[in-house]
């Protein structure tokens, strides 16, 4: 998730440079976006539409190659990010073309429903990772960068600062993994986790049953409503689910319940 935050922010900030007349920074950091995509590909086989998360853990374990590439990124990107900042942060032309441009006050940002870096650039230190921790974010130390004016320059500074915080979180995660068993990558919940070996489905009745129930959605969900959100790179990304006790989510409309519908909240 933090690698994804970095790939988003490095593009956002380098494109601001392009829009203000500087193309070099964009080309410089893009190669490290490609390195992150290589990490994704090693982890799950996809470079962009990553899909490895499962209920209770991951679909597969990380390979040694994946960890090697993550470490390569941690070793090389800080120097690149520092040089990128040197190109722009105190660049007179860049400052003149971004400072005072598109300022958003904290009150206006809140009234408009801003979240993410745009809200924090306006001076509001709201971050879902702190307000409602998920995925063990409460076990990591990091700060929430905020701005003061909410202009384009502040948004640039906030995203740059967030990349440094993401690097710190990734380093902490790598250190924490050293103290954990290397062969455990999901919880022991066979009723919700597909059998690790596909051949078990053909030879073991329990594996076949679990596989069928999970894939075909044979598990009834308790009735109720739930909202859950994560801190996406560009702001809060949340999903609001309503269940009537069946096997699929519903949302109530004027025409009555409609099956297979998930209401998605705003994403700024």
Describe the structure.
The chain is mainly alpha-helical and 268 residues long. It is 49% helix and 12% strand. The protein has ten helices and seven strands. Strands 3-4-7 form a three-stranded antiparallel sheet. Helix 1 (2-19) packs antiparallel against helix 2 (24-44), helix 1 (2-19) packs antiparallel against helix 8 and helix 3 (64-88) packs antiparallel against helix 8 (152-177). The longest helix is centred in the middle third of the chain and has 26 residues, at 152-177. Mean pLDDT is 88; it is low at 253-268.
Layout of helices and strands, plus pairs?
Blueprint: H1 2-19, H2 24-44, E1 53-54, E2 57-58, H3 64-88, H4 92-98, H5 106-111, H6 116-121, H7 128-131, H8 152-177, H9 198-203, H10 205-215, E3 224-232, E4 235-243, E5 250-253, E6 256-259, E7 263-264
Antiparallel strand pairs: 1-2, 3-4, 4-7, 5-6
Helix pairs in contact: 1-2, 1-8, 2-3, 3-8
